[in-house]
Amino acid sequence: MMRPLLAGLALTYVLAANAQDERKKLAFEAIDRNAEQIALVGDSLYYFGELGMQEVESAKFLKQTLEGIGFKVETGGAGMPTNVWAQWGSGKPKIVIVTEIDALPGGSQTPGSIERKPMIKDAPGHMEGHNTHGAVAVGAAYALKRVMERYKLPGTIAISFGPAEEQLVSRPFLVRAGLFKDADAAMLIHIGDNLSTGYGLQNYAAISAKFTFHGKTAHGAVNPWDGKDAVDAVELMDMGYDKLREHLRPTQRAHRTITIGGIQPNIIPDLGQIWWFVRDANAPWAKENFDKLVNIGRGAALMTGTTMEMEINASAWPQLGNRVLADALQKNIDEVGNPKWSAEEEKFAKDFQTALGVKVTGLNAEPMKSGSRPQGFASNDNGDVTWNVPSGYFTFPASVPGVNYHNWQAAVTPISSIAHKGEVAGAKVLAATLLDLVTQPEILAKAKTQFEEDTKGTPYFSFLPADAKPPLDMNREMMERFRPEMRKHYLNKTPRFD
Known about the structure:
alpha+beta, Aminopeptidase, 7-stranded mixed beta sheet, 4-stranded antiparallel beta sheet, 13 strands
């Protein structure tokens, strides 16, 4: 016979589990009921197709949409006009949904066309599918708000749409401005081809900087000895770092492009510029490599008699996934499961994979299992958040397996029925996990302990110089050139959640 105390504890556990099931059921019903409105959010953002720091229409649309569901919305945080911060609720715990909405240059593509068919030649477009992030974040936030109102649950839910993630710009500024200082946890979301989560280091640290050299112009044939060639300094810097590579760790990555390289051969250029990305497996190593690069630039200036200016315009710590929060996410990933794909969707995916020459597998039927995964080499400026706040990370299935991002093929499906179903699944996982964090303080306590253990040997520091400011003019010229034609494709609809 079960002892009375044990029986009482068992009954309490069952009642708590049943209550949580009822709350999640209410959240899922709200998401299913508003599936079309969730899709409209993502589709609207797709047609805006705005580049980083120029997400003007996207920010205005999200502000209107979030205010429509009862959130308080502020734009302009950390000195960035298109930064969107939305918040609802009061008190603790405070959980922040962290994501982005920017597009990429040259990504314009007719939705659903497997063949290359830009809507507007050379225009920007969502060839990573960041438009779907807004749909998931808004859908989950709405559903969670409904549950918290119904059950009078304490807590604060915030959403951060950071500008210019593709250029690694905004999150270091947002962290420096203190927007995450009172957060108990963060949830990072990203489009993928499956429901998945993980923990540990997810990607690389990175520092982006432009080095500008100033010299003295002269006639290349008549009096070249009077000149000080700024492009020579650029070339010497490039060669200098190339010679250094042998002496760096195997994990280092560095890439550059010459952005100002002279006018014509017989004019000694007085202006030269080179743009570098320096990466490594952790932030201290990336900083060490970058400091060496700066010294090489100074040496190039010394050799050519020029002067050098250096500007860090973006940076990112490696993204750190919290194991406790990954376990909480995985529980809800298993509960929600992947969408039920139609025969038409499966055929489209296989036709797409065939056209790309990748393995023909169709769409994923089952979610991935959580685990510590091999560290990726790319970067995401969300990383700075994860070294200041315990952070969970998950992907949702809104793209076709085998389709790589940052090329036009990835712009084919972000407003398809595949994306719409993936957005609903992602919103359910996010809402359910946030509900667990709001109602089970022991999860957040364990996540905090895990965070302290993960970060104890590597205290956070900002890559940004104290006087660094966000590059507000980034991508402005390109967006102003294409926006009039892009405007003709705007949906001009307002989501109505109920």
